[in-house]
Structures are given as C-alpha cells and as structure tokens.
C-alpha cells in the first residue's frame, strides 16, 4: 500500500508517494524491507529503544510515540500513536471489519465461551463463522493457530479479520479484554455486536482499582460505539451498563438467568446436561446443552441472541443447540469414576464460586478443590478465592498455578489467609504431585468429586521465566489409567 494513502495526516507535510508499505510491525525483530515500525512505550519494554534495529532490518518508515525522538528522514513523532495503530491497521488491510459482522465480547468471565460457542453455533446452521479467543484463532470451523493473548494487537486483529474475510467468513467473534480495551487494541474495528457477560474482582494488578477496571469494560460500549449491545444484567455493574446504554442506543438488549429480561433463560438439570428454556425477544425455545453449568449456558445464550437478532429461525437454532461444544477446560468432566474429576479455567473469585456451586448442585459427595493463583498478577484476589474455596468445598488442596517469578509458598500463604478453618487445607506446592496424591487419596472414596481449577486448557506452567509442559487433563488421565 502506498504510504501517502496509509498516512494522509503525515503526507500532508511530507511527500511519501514513492514509499510502498509491505507490512506493519510493532516488533523490530519482525521488520523487513518495506515495513512500517511502530515504536511505542510498553509496560516492560520501550519500542523507541529499538528504532535503530528496525531501520537496520529495512524499515521504510518509523512512527514513534515519543516527543523526544529525533525526527529525521522517514522517522516521525505521532501523538497518541497507540490509539492510532488500529486505524492505520484497518486502512492497511482494507477496512476488513466493515465487510463482515463483528462480535466483540467483554466481561470478567465467559469471554472465551461466548466467542467460541458463537462460531460453533454458526457453523452448525451453515454460516461461515470465525473466532479469536484466549485459546485459538479459527476460520469457518477450522483451527488456524493457537492464541497467546486474549485480545491480539491491532495489526494482528485486522490481519486475522482480513484472512477470515478472504475465506468468505460472514461473522467473526473476538474477545475484548480489559487490557486490550485500555491499550486501544480494538480502535478502528467496526463493531456490530458488543456483549457483556459478567463482572467481578480481577486484574487489579494492572488497573489498580475496581473503578478503573470498570471504565476499561465500559469503553467497549461507550467509546467504540457498537451498533447493537447485549448485556447480561446478572451483576450490579451489568445493570448499570444496561441502564446507561439503553438511554443512548435503543438497540440494547438485556440477558438474564435470574430475572426478567429481553432474553431470559431458566434451567433444569438432567443427568450431565441442562434442559434450557429461553424466552428471547418473544421467541420461546427449548433445548439441551452438554454442560451442568448455568453460567456457561448464560454465555452461550449471549451467542444465541446475536443470531436471533440477525433474523435466524429459532426452530433451526433450537435443533442444533444440543451439538454445541464448549471450550476445553471450562467445567469439563475428565473422569466419571471414583473420583469424579472436573477441570476449570477459574482463576477469579466469581469463576471459582460458580464452578464449585454448579458441582455441588449436581453431586452429593464430598467436594474437594485443588487450585493455586498466578504469580505477578492481582494478589488482592488470593484471600478472596481462599474464602470461596472454604465456603463451597469440603477440602482444599493449595498448590502452584503459574507462579512466574513469585515465591510459590508466599502465593499459597496469601490464599490461605482468607481461610478460617485451616484443618480443611492440604498444601503441596508441586502441582503434579498435588494432583497425583489427591487422586490416589480419593480413589476409594465413593461419590467424592474433585475440582482442579485455575489452568483449564493451558498446556504449560510458567516458573521463573520458563514454560514447562504441563496439562491438568493429561495428568489426570495418566494417573487414572493406573488406579
């Protein structure tokens, strides 16, 4: 693409007509001849320190967010550059988000489930649907690549949307994390549907206080101006967002599993499934879902609501709902014999409470909970999660999660500080040993149920700057095959 068309604001004063841009990069190591390098200050690294590297690698233009940068040929200072990368990226890829329907999902919990089940449902009704989630990037039902960020950078976002569009995708669902929203990663995306799933304590290591965290979530709905809004009102913050949005956008709809709403669902547990009754915008629907979790079902109903608003036939949608596949590691039953074992990605107080509550509703035996908390993340939620575990389970095994560079014992002490009855606690810092020992202890305990929480789908542990291969499900299956 010609640089003057990509950066008309700059080319008004500088001639860029003879520069052809071949790629956009925020990592100087990926720069090649014809690249534009965006030099931005991050949390741990400053891209401005790598301008010379980018030039050596062939960058044709460098845009910097530092007013101290020494402007010279093809190196320019751009105020609020981070907020503009999304706009530049959208231009570079031909405004791909305006050529298909985009669904952006935010909330403390439920983003992955909503994005993935949306695409899954679309595929089942013969629509070309793609998604970007914490786990995968998928185009029309086929996994393209694994993800390493909940919300990718603006360049990757637009590149992925463009690639999905080239393969005739008609819809794309994506997660909008609080970090991604704060860092303006979704700026320039044309949003058709914005979904709010839930809200609870999380990420205060990054946002510093709950009010800042709330503002980051609100920005999806009030700053990025989606055409339609779907808001789960089962939290006080959800009610607040819905009430404010409804005044400025009539295409705002409430969703609830607890009270009257535009889309209201209630449930009946049937063996390992949920029978779901939905009253959605005047349409009454009944179907079964392959989960015992009402909260996962609530996330799916957000997906379902989009297709109802798109005018899809409720009868056709109802027929395929029983085939919906929920993401790996979301209240997933791994063992159905002594002991019964579930894994869940729960790493917030709300998510842990929801998982334990659903298991208690389904099973009568003793409930054991094995979990830890991530290092170098919001430490204030650790004692809260300890209290949740104490309130909703019979026994607690505290172990490591992804300690990163934090001391594992210190993390466990933080969790246990929220637990009053320490007789309920067992501690084993080695996660592999903790899972092994607990499964062995429970093998002769009829009806006992074990929830292993925190990591879900993850296939590694991050310890002292290194990633070690480790997956809860694989570990459980390996032990269960020997007992």
Largest sheet composition? 11 strands, mixed
Give me the side-by-side strand order of the main sheet. Answer: 8-7-6-9-5-10-11-12-13-14-15
Query: What is the strand content?
Result: 15-25%
The coarse silhouette is globular
How many DSSP-defined strands? 23
What class would the helix/strand composition place it in?
Answer: alpha/beta
Helix content: 25-40%
Low-confidence stretches: none
In round numbers, the mean pLDDT is: 94
Number of helices: 17
Radius of gyration: 24 Å
How widely separated are the two ends?
62 Å
Supply database-style keywords.
483 residues; 23% strand; alpha/beta; eleven-stranded mixed beta sheet
What does this entry show, briefly?
The chain has 483 residues and is α/β, with parallel strands linked by helices. The chain contains 17 helices and 23 strands. The strands form four sheets. Strands 8-7-6-9-5-10-11-12-13-14-15 form an eleven-stranded mixed β-sheet, sandwiched between helices. It has a six-stranded mixed β-sheet with strand order 16-17-21-18-19-20, sandwiched between helices.
């Amino acid at each position: 693409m010609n640089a003057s068309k990509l950066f008309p604001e700059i080319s008004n004063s500088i001639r860029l007509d003879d520069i052809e841009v071949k790629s956009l990069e925020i990592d100087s190591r990926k720069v090649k001849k014809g690249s534009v390098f965006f030099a931005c200050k991050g949390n741990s690294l400053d891209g401005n320190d790598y301008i010379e590297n980018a030039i050596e690698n062939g960058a044709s233009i460098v845009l910097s967010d530092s007013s101290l940068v020494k402007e010279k040929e093809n190196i320019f200072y751009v105020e609020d550059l981070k907020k503009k990368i999304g706009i530049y990226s959208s231009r570079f890829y031909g405004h791909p988000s305006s050529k298909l329907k985009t669904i952006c999902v935010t909330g403390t919990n439920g983003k992955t489930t909503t994005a993935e089940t949306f695409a899954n449902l679309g595929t089942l009704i013969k629509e070309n649907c793609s998604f970007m989630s914490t786990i995968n990037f998928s185009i029309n039902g086929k996994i393209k690549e694994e993800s390493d960020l909940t919300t990718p950078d603006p360049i990757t976002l637009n590149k992925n949307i463009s690639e999905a569009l080239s393969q005739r995708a008609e819809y794309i669902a994506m997660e909008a994390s609080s970090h991604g929203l704060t860092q303006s990663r979704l700026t320039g995306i044309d949003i058709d549907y914005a979904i709010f799933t839930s809200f609870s304590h999380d990420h205060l290591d990054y946002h510093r206080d709950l009010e800042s965290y709330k503002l980051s979530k609100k920005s999806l709905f009030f700053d990025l101006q989606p055409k339609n809004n779907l808001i789960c009102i089962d939290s006080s913050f959800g009610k607040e967002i819905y009430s404010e949005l409804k005044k400025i956008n009539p295409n705002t709809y409430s969703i609830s599993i607890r009270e009257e709403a535009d889309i209201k669902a209630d449930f009946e547990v049937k063996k390992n499934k949920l029978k779901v009754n939905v009253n959605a915008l005047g349409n009454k629907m009944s179907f079964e879902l392959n989960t015992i979790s009402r909260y996962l079902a609530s996330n799916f109903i957000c997906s379902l609501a989009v297709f109802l608003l798109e005018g899809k036939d409720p009868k056709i949608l109802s027929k395929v709902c029983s085939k919906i596949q929920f993401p790996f590691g979301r209240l997933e039953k791994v063992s159905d014999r002594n002991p019964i074992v579930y894994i869940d990605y729960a790493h917030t107080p709300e998510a842990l409470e929801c998982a334990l509550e659903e298991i208690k509703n389904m099973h009568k035996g003793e409930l054991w909970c094995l979990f830890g908390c991530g290092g170098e993340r919001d430490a204030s939620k650790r004692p809260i999660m300890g209290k949740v575990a104490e309130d909703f389970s019979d026994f607690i095994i505290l172990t490591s999660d992804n300690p990163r560079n934090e001391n594992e014992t210190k993390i466990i002490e933080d969790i246990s500080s929220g637990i009053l009855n320490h007789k309920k606690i067992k501690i084993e810092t080695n996660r592999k040993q903790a899972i092994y020992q607990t499964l062995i202890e429970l093998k002769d305990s009829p009806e006992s149920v074990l929830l292993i929480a925190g990591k879900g789908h993850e296939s590694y542990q991050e310890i002292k700057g290194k990633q070690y291969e480790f997956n809860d499900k694989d570990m459980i299956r390996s032990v269960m095959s020997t007992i």
